[in-house]
Write a structure and sequence with these properties.
single chain, 134 residues, mainly alpha
């Protein structure tokens, strides 16, 4: 008898669920469009972070904090220059005789510059560079 009651109740629950489907969530609210320049800059920065994570982080560590002092990008002596251009050159050409391989075939010039800006930002001792004048 208990089995019949349980079976009947289960049927009622299934029938009720079919008649009363869960409510449909409201559509997401539209967001304000970003200006083209900012959207491009943030996309470039996001791509630089992605590239750093995939290619650079295994040696240089998260946010440039490698446990090996010669590979750390934080609070260290920069052997090849601290400007974005100098860092981009190192990323592009690598450093012969070290584990730093050239990346000119992995990234576009724009991606390398964005990656250089990101890497430079890891060292709190470095002052922000002035924007290039046009």
């Amino acid at each position: 008898m208990a089995a019949v009651v349980a079976w009947s109740l289960a049927g009622l629950v299934r029938a009720g669920a079919a008649q009363n489907p869960p409510p449909i969530p409201p559509p997401p609210k539209p967001t304000a469009a970003k200006p083209e320049a900012k959207a491009g800059a943030s996309a470039s920065a996001a791509k630089a972070e992605e590239n750093y994570t995939k290619v650079c982080q295994p040696c240089h560590g998260p946010k440039g904090k490698s446990p090996l002092p010669t590979m750390s990008l934080v609070d260290r002596e920069w052997k090849h220059g601290t400007s974005t251009q100098a860092i981009a050159k190192t990323i592009t050409e690598g450093v012969p005789g070290t584990a730093m391989l050239p990346n000119k075939d992995k990234f576009t010039k724009e991606e390398i510059l964005a990656l250089a800006r990101l890497v430079r930002s890891f060292d709190p001792k470095l002052k922000p560079e002035k924007a290039p004048s046009k």
